[in-house]
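Notes to self after the Tuesday call (sharing in case useful).
The group wants a holo model before anyone commits to mutagenesis around the pocket. I volunteered. Ligand is iron/sulfur cluster. Logging inputs and output together so the record is complete.
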Amino acid sequence: MSATLPMATTAGCDRPVLKERGQREVFCGLTGIIWLHRKLQDAFFLIVGSRTCAHLMQSAAGVMIFAEPRFGTAVIEEKDLAGMAVLDQELDGVVSRLLARRPELRTVFLVGSCPSEVIKLDLATAAERLEQRFAPDVRFLHYSGSGIETTFTEGEDACLKAMVPRLPDASDDSAEELIVVGTLADVIEEQFRRLFDEMGVGPVHFLPGRTSRHLPAVGPRTRLLLAHPWVNETARALEKRGATVLPAPFPLGAEGTTQWLRAAAEAWGVAPERFEQVVAPARERARVALERYRPGLEGKSIFLFPDSQIELSVARFLNREMGMDLVEVGTPHLDGMYHAAELALIPEDVRVSEGQDVDLQLDRCRAASPDLTVCGLGLANPLEAEGLRTKWAIELVFSPVQGYEQAGDLAELFHRPLDRMQRLEV
Ligand code: SF4
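Result:
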């Protein structure tokens, strides 16, 4: 049985949204390991889960079995579930073998799953015990990637939040520092770092950095820029340590990137002329790149199912910079505080929905018959068979699309399925 709740407001923002709580179609939080393990080059993600978890990661990450990946699964067997094995000893054995084989590792994340949560395996205590044994060479952190109540990007949020207690305290008289929160591809990190340097904003740190031991200090003089809409729990944990989030839309498209950078520039007192001078060349490159795709997208309608929490930012970009018509913008979770700047840029007459009741949403989508539907893999094939053009939502998270230089790539992701349809018709 499912229920559609009436339009309601979210704490922190006045705009009414359609709140739904029904069956959902999303990946679980383990999926975040796919981009986290590429970034944190001295860390290992040890999933404590089932063969299903192992298969999900193996196929989603597409890792060759003879490679030495930085993630793996300690599989909970039937005898473990039946209480016939001492799980702590088994886990310690797996970790010992892992570290003997991979002495370069500096941090091991014990990642909980649905099975480990169901049998109430205490990974917090396991992480403490293992850290005592392997300190100071290896740290152990833990978080849950379970799919019981979460969407897949919350896995990254949970991982970064687990790192927050390890960040050193910044002294009260330290200089103002900026932390960009959320995993960015190295090339994008470099682009942003260059722009911040040229403006005179900094020192700038990225969380996560390229190694798990690069942990910036945090305190009352720390300013935060959120790189993704899904790092809200990490942001809250950092705010509890005294840091302040700079409100801004997220850095997608030329407009989002400009406003995001401007939030930092204003906090650092950068003169508007200086800001313009620094961003203008890259913004112009983005404008030229977007011009190429705008004719194919302008006036086309789009329906976004909730998947990763990136939907509001993508919708804002497609509407304001590419001229697309928004039918419905779904998001798995709306945070009245950190998403407010983004929500303010979505036209008032567009339906924004939070959560999902997939059958009801499918009915709305079919009735609207949009030119393009952004949805998960499970919905895309059936909708294609019904004649709707789709875009896999997960590509928006797996592709490096933040910043000026990637704005064209972001537009191209939506242009491609529409262009293909047109060519097939011809
Ligand atoms: Fe499935 Fe849960 Fe494992 Fe994710 S954590 S693969 S949802 S069993």
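Two things stood out.
The first helix runs from residue 33 to 39.
Residues 28, 30, 49-50, 52-53, 56, 113-114, 145-147 surround iron/sulfur cluster (CB under 6 Å).
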